[in-house]
Amino acid sequence: MATIQTINGPKDSSELGPVLNHEHLTSGMGSFERLGYYNREDAIRRGVEALQNAYDVGIRTVIDCTPLDLGRDELLFDGIAGKTPMNVICATGVYRWVPMPYAAWDEDGAAAFMLREINDGIAGTSIKPGIIKLAWDIEYQLEPLRVQMEKMARGAARAAKAAGVPITCHTRPADYHGDRLLDIFEEEGLDLRAVTIGHTNDSTDMDYVLRMAKRGATVGLDRFSPRIDEAEQERRSRVALTLVEAGYAEQVCLSHDSASYSINGGPPSGGVRPENPRAFCLVSEVQIPWLKAHGVTDHQVDAMLVRSVRASFEAAAAMKK
Which pTM value belongs to this model? Predict the structure, then answer.
């Protein structure tokens, strides 16, 4: 067992229940409230409703993978904490474009920033992250950015070992980012079971998908969005089915990468994306029934929704120095 930090305080890993491992209560950019489009009370209302709907279909924990530079709002967490029965775990870390202030840091400086939030709370509040988020996307093809992204990955690894928290990674599977990330984490001495290589169901290369599992990582099949059509939803469900049939259900986690409140992908005139109070329900309402109809057992579903994420947190806690 392990102690996991939630926005309501510490919880035992045995209390997580079914988990959505990669969602967002807000999504935008750092200081996005200054654009004039952010309404915190509306974000709280939307977040509470989306979380309640997910709770009603059986989810008990949502991991919010929003670091500072993607629009994380610690006061939103304060507002939501007492209004939902859902466990919510928030993140420290860094998003795709490493911000300029971080550029002069070395790996230990990056780790110190993450550890300060994990240990002391975010921006003077009592809200403490329970996970570290990294994001590698098309920017990794540019050498100056690649240097920064690899530095942040090493910093995240050092913070994860010091604090005993897992790392979750937004990746672009078309560039096979999982391979390099796992190499770095191995070099830094991480137990790869404490690492989630996310968005892996974007990939159509099952050799790559299976390789992530064979190396011991948690495979994040966390892009099952209501914005994709039924044929693509089925293709993504088949990725999960293939992993289950290959014996890796205990290393698979499922989610949407949806946001209950976002200014990314909003209207052309500017503003907030249309509201979707069931943003966190599609896995429970569509993907799980499809998997069961194709032979996946309740025990294997439990592996993907409960035991895989719990094992990731417990592997991380075991690394703590």
Answer: 0.96
Cα 288 from Cα 118, distance rounded (Å): 33
Q: What is the pLDDT of residues 58-100, one digit of tens each?
A: 999 999 999 999 989 999 999 999 899 999 999 999 999 888 8
Answer whether 19's CB lies under 8 Å from 253's CB. yes
The answer to whether the beta carbons of residues 89 and 61 sit under 8 Å apart is: yes
Closest CA to 131 of 306, 262, 2, 279: 2
What would the two tokens of residue 222 be? 């966390």
Residue type, 103: A
List the end-to-end C-alpha distance of the chain, in Å, as a whole number: 17
List the domains of the chain with CATH numbers. Answer: 3-319 (3.20.20.140)
Contacts of 41 (CB under 8 A, 6+ apart): 79
Greatest Cα-to-Cα distance within the chain, rounded to the nearest angstrom: 52
